[in-house]
Amino acid sequence: MHSVEYGSGTPILMIHGFCVDHHLMLALDPVFAAQGHWRRVYIDLPGMGKSAAGPEIDSADSVAEAVVAFARNTFGNEKFAVLGNSFGGMIARYIVAEFGDQVLGLALICPVAVAEQGARSVPPKTVLHRDPNLLASLDFDDAADYEEMAVVQSRENWERFRESVLPGLRAFHPEAIDRISGNYSFRMEPEARSPTFQGPAVIITGRQDDVVGFYDQIALADHYVRSTIAVLDGAGHNAHLDQPELTGRLLDEWIVRMEH
To answer: Fewer Cβ within 10 Å of end Cβ, the chain: N or C?
Structure first.
C-alpha cells in the first residue's frame, strides 16, 4: 500500500475517501505540523492513487483488512490516532473496532455512516454561490467534477479542489473500484462488534452534504461517547476544503483532548 509520511512523534493514520487518494488529506497537514509532534501517515487505499489492488480486493471488508494489516506493520503496539474522510471514515470506524484502546482518538470528516446510498438521510443538493465565469474558464471534465461537489464556488475553493481532489479522481483503478462498489457495505457494522469507544473523537459534517448527509453521522455519537459533533454551514461533502479554518479549529481542540 502506497504511503507518504511527514514529521515525527505520535502517529496519526490519515485515510481518504472513495475514488480519490492521499492528496485529499494533505490539506489538513498544517494543522498537525503546527503541533510539532505528530507523525502523519497518509495512505492510498487499495485500487486508488498509487496502491495496486489484486482480485482479493473485492469489498469494503477487504479494503479495511488491508488497512488493518498496514497499521499493524507500521505501528506495531504503539498507540496511534486515526482520521478518516468519507469512505475513509467508514474504514476508520473499522480500525477503531479492530484496535480498541490502542487508538488514541478518532476524527471523522463527512464519514460514510450508512453504506447503502438509498438508505442515507441526506439534504437536497444545494449550491449557495455559483460562479459561472469560473466554471467557463476550466477544462470541461474539471468543471464537471468541481460543479458536482462545490457548495460555494470560488477561485480559492476551486484551487483547493484542484490540489486535493483531482489527483485521485484521475488515478483510481476502475476495475478495483467496480469490485469494491459491488460489496460496499461491511458484513457487520464496526459499532456492532466492539464496545463503545472511550477516546476523544470529533465528527465533522457538512450542512449541505448531499452525498452522506449529517443526520446519520450524529447518530454515531452514541458509540463514540467522547465525541464533539459539528455540522458546518457552507460545506458539502468536502467540508475540510469548504470550511478549512473551522475544520482546523475543531481538529486543534481534538488534539488537545488527546494530549490530556
So the answer is: C
Name the 3-class secondary structure at 168. Answer: helix
- Among the listed residues 227, 226, 222, the one whose alpha carbon sits nearest the alpha carbon of residue 192: 222
31 alpha-carbon distance from chain centroid: 15
3-class DSSP string for 132-155: HHHHHHCCHHHHHHHHHHCCECCH
Cell readout for 121 is 438521510
Q: For residues 27 and 176, is the Cβ–Cβ distance under 8 A?
A: no
Note the pLDDT tens digit of each residue in 84-112.
999 999 999 999 999 999 999 999 999 99
Interhelix angle 155-164/140-149, nearest 10 degrees? 100
CA angle (75, 77, 78) in 5-degree steps: 60
CA distance 213 to 30: 27
Buried-exposed string 117-136: b where 16+ CB fall within 10 A, e elsewhere: eeebebeeeeeeeebeebbe
The structure's pTM equals 0.97
Q: Which among 180, 151, 145, 139 has a CA at the least distance from the CA of 165?
A: 145
